[in-house]
DNA sequence: TTGAAAGCGGTACCAA
DNA sequence: TTGGTACCGCTTTCAA
């Protein structure tokens, strides 16, 4: 009996109209604060609506005045501070447009990503975010929705993609390390994909440009723990390494911790430079040097492109869809 | 000329139908993979839809099959790691229900909060989150929407509220400090509201229970910098303080930094215990002792209550809507 | 297998 | 100031 009593149908504008003894449009007027309605009538309608617990259907309303825009923001892991920053920036940019943002955390899982992509198409006007699946699949699942990919190499021009250009920043980082006297520089790359990351390519190019031998590379999970164990492995196999560049700041922070545990003083015995420019990097000891990205700019750019795609006003070109990274020296390297 | 060419009206199911030479319901069938349709017809429709760039209106669709549920998650500052954790937990819980989540960051501003509340009602089926405005105002703006308030004392029973009970945890923290020999324990409260926080009340009760004099209190902004300057002020005015309890972990981390700068070794010269139990606390040096909250449980509980409110299946009672905090000793105190 | 018609719950435009 | 009517874009029911 407990759950059967609440078997109530939705309260519609019609119910309110009947209850107040007026027509539907009068109810509409009362609720939307239009003029052209008698004060007492309005009050009566409002009372009826309240008594009935009436709430207008967002679908019906959206159908007739198609003004609200919603975008889907897809993030692999909201707890990763980098994505948190991007998400916050995107939220802010969307708010400036008056848009609503539906956030989906795919938990770094291709399966969740698929599920998200599947349901998202019917809920939003555009999609922005990080994806691991192929463009073909994304295309199939989003069916013509404007999509803005972040930090991905564009294989076709079906989608917009925000490219992260860290080449110069990484070069500056390596040059800096070399000037400090480092000759054996390793890298902690991320372990997500099969191939080495683009950041690794920048690293390799930079060391080569400095005339160094190719440094040793170790794969790390994208977590503090991942960074810790990766650094341990790297140093165990290559004790001569005096500096490391990491795929991102999270991994770098792990490296910092591992270094301390191993009794290596940073930056004296080991220099560490990360990538991303997280605020978090200023809180650790020593503060983390990093190749910093403008995460706010990134989020804003992604939303801006979505806006242009949506309005059909000349979208940004690939040349403009770039966020550059620059070396930010603190104390770790 | 550039922008005028794209003045296109929305492509509707009707356009597709005409283009494919079929009726609208046939288009619907083709797109929704219903049976009862000839293979070739289906293909023709699909082709036409693709060519026209057709995408079904989510409003029209939602109107007829009212199955998707969306909740609004309102957060004061997504970049504050505590709220990030709560948001991530809520997202996860919502996903388990198959719900969509619209996230709003009110930037700690009562004005933004008002704006959010205003637009949110027409977009979601329920609201969950942090609010600073009075229940009257929230009520007025949400008009009957189910609302779950987090970390707020309930003044009426118009809303559900998740209460955070840190009394025992704080008592344990203070007891621990006293056992360590501390006699003069200060607090860094937050500076947001006019009155002292509930956490301060717990602190005061705990020190009193331990037979201590009332410790000095200093207000701090909810940021690392806020914690830094607050600790400096506190120690300048009360140099005899040997331990501090803080409103939250962020402030505590600021205190840690300030202590280092002041040459006070933690925990030897100054013990610090925070509140929240952020993961971040494990990354700082020394790792932060804290009165920890189960943030995942918090997010899940909030969403669970929203679900019950929505389905009308017996909502959780105030007694059940509580998240308790417990002392988690690491190294800072 | 296909199409016609009737809504879903609102709002806008008109006439009363 | 009010109500009638049409219609937003889609899906469902029922008949052809």
Overview of the molecule:
The structure is a homodimer of 333-residue chains. Chain A has 333 residues and is an alpha/beta fold. Chain A has three domains: 13-64, lambda repressor-like DNA-binding domains (434 Repressor (Amino-terminal Domain)), CATH 1.10.260; 70-165 and 295-324, Rossmann fold (3-Layer(aba) Sandwich); 167-294, Rossmann fold, CATH 3.40.50. Chain A contains twelve helices and eleven strands. Chain A has helices at residues 13-20, 24-31, 39-52, 58-64, 81-97, 110-120, 135-142, 167-179, 198-209, 224-237, 249-261, 295-311; strands at residues 70-75, 100-105, 126-129, 147-150, 160-165, 185-190, 217-220, 243-246, 271-276, 289-293, 322-328. In chain A, strands 2-1-3-4-5-11-10-9-8-6-7 form an eleven-stranded mixed β-sheet, sandwiched between helices. In chain A, helix 1 packs across helix 2 and helix 5 crosses helix 12 (295-311). The longest helix of chain A is centred in the first third of the chain and has 17 residues, at 81-97. Chain A is elongated and about 85 Å long. The interface between A and B is large, with 58 and 59 residues. Chain A binds a DNA duplex (16 and 16 nucleotides) through residues 10, 12-14, 22-26, 28-29, 32, 35-38, 41, 56-57, 59-66. Chains A, B: Keywords: DNA-binding, Transcription, Transcription regulation. Chains A, B: This is LacI family transcriptional regulator. Chains A, B: Residues 11-65 form the HTH lacI-type domain.
